[in-house]
Amino acid sequence: MLTQRPVSLNKDRDFVLDLYCLRGFDEMPAWARSASYHKFREGWLKTSAPQEFMDELEDSLADTRTIAEIWQEDDRAVGFLWVTFSDLYNEPVTTAQLRILAVQMSHQRRGIGGLMLRRAEEEALSRGAVSLRSETATDNAASQAMHGRQGYKVISYQYEKVLTAAS
Questions:
Q1: Is the CB of residue 58 less than 8 Å from the CB of residue 46?
Q2: What is the CATH number of the domain that holds 66?
Q3: Are 10 and 120 in contact (CB under 8 A)?
């Protein structure tokens, strides 16, 4: 049985960082994933990025609208959902940004991500948002399919060029 609970920055730190790191690796362009995930994670953990991420998560919790949940199956953490809110253009228009929706690899492809996305939508609406935005990589077909099934539309493209001395 799936349940949700608020994230605990201390208790859930390692779990959240593992999911964030895996999501980051999965969403990198193919050229940047030449090393194994294990090697990538090992290097990433030695940088300031993990602490910066945790600081950003903690800062976001000052906004009572923020959604930061651990999803559990039989009291075992299997997913992390983080949604932040912005008020746009000095008008009473609030948008929500899906910062992270991540499910442990052992629990993927079981519909948990779709449930988390629907929960994010319901909670964002109840907290005053008129839209929920989400990003995914161009080669993350599973995420793109999930978003499409839920009625999401592509609203922008981001471009990248790998630079070499000859470019």
A1: no
A2: 3.40.630.30
A3: no
Q: Is 93 a member of any domain?
A: yes
Per the structure, how many domains does the chain have? 1
pLDDT values of the chain reduced to their tens digit, one per residue, 167 residues: 899 999 999 999 999 999 998 888 877 777 777 778 888 889 889 999 999 999 999 999 999 999 999 999 998 999 999 999 999 876 778 999 999 999 988 888 888 988 999 999 999 999 999 999 988 877 778 888 888 888 889 888 777 777 877 65
* Burial of residue 86 (number of CB atoms within 10 Å: 0-12, 13-18, 19+): middle
In a domain, residue 165? The reply is no
Record the tokens describing residue 120, joined without a space. 């994010």
Domain that holds residue 59: 2-149
94, 86 in Cβ contact below 8 A?
Answer: yes
Task: For residue 36, give both structure tokens.
Answer: 């194994």
> Residue 37: inside a domain, yes or no?
yes
* Torsions phi, psi for 16 (to 5 deg): -65, -45
**Helical spans, DSSP H, in 46-99:** 49-60
67 found inside a domain: yes
